[in-house]
Amino acid sequence: MRLYLAQHGLAKEKHEDSERPLSDQGREDITRVAGFLSLFEKPKPVRIVHSGKLRAEQTAAMFAEGWGGLAIEKALDLDPNADPSIWSAHLASMHSDVMLIGHLPHLQRLAGLLLCADPAREIIHFRNAGVVCLEKTDQNWSICWQVNPTLFYGEN
User: Fold this and answer.
1) What angle do CA 119, 123, 128 make, to 5 degrees?
2) Which residues pair with 135 in a beta bridge?
3) Are 74 and 49 in contact (CB under 8 A)?
4) Going residue by residue through the chain (156 aa), what tens digit of pLDDT does each one get?
5) Residues paired with residue 147 on neighbouring β-strands, in sequence order
6) Which of 8, 23, 71, 111 could form a disulfide with 59 if both were Cys (CB 3.0 to 4.6 A apart)?
7) Distance between CA 60 and CA 63 in Å, rounded?
8) Is 69:48 a contact under the CB 8 Å cutoff?
């Protein structure tokens, strides 16, 4: 089973728009990463789950479109401060590849819990619009790859 952990794209600041939709840069970053993955990542996840926040929902829609129209759903337990053990338990009984679109610090805590049983340990440095692919074999998770927008235009 593969698990794709994606931090939502860069959002507008709260003073610009209280709903915090994706910024122009956020849309550009997701377009590039989703386009890259649609060409090279086979197989693809069977569904995308997001937190319900507008920026995560928009990010999910763009990845779904990039992969040719995947199913999208909302889950309340992907908020920034959600307990990572909730998704760890969900994943233990799943067998199909899934993408989770979420926020920090939840994604970092979930990755730490899955990879080294320590949600306080930052194993992966997440970036807006970045995707980390984890793979479960038996009961163990490992990192397959990570793609960030910096791949396309550097660290600036």
Assistant:
1) 100
2) 2, 142
3) yes
4) 999 999 999 999 999 999 999 999 999 999 999 999 999 877 789 999 999 999 999 999 999 999 988 999 999 899 999 999 999 999 999 999 999 999 999 999 999 999 999 999 999 999 999 999 999 988 899 999 999 998 887 666
5) 131
6) 8
7) 5
8) no
Distance CA 30, CA 77 (A): 23
* Measured CA distances, 32 to 37, 68, 109, 115 (Å): 9, 15, 26, 27
Q: Taking the domains of the chain in order of start, what are their residue ranges?
A: 2-153
Amino acid identity of residue 40, one-letter, is F
Helices (H), 17-67: 24-40, 54-66
Tell me the fold of 2-153.
Answer: Rossmann fold (3.40.50)
pTM: 0.94
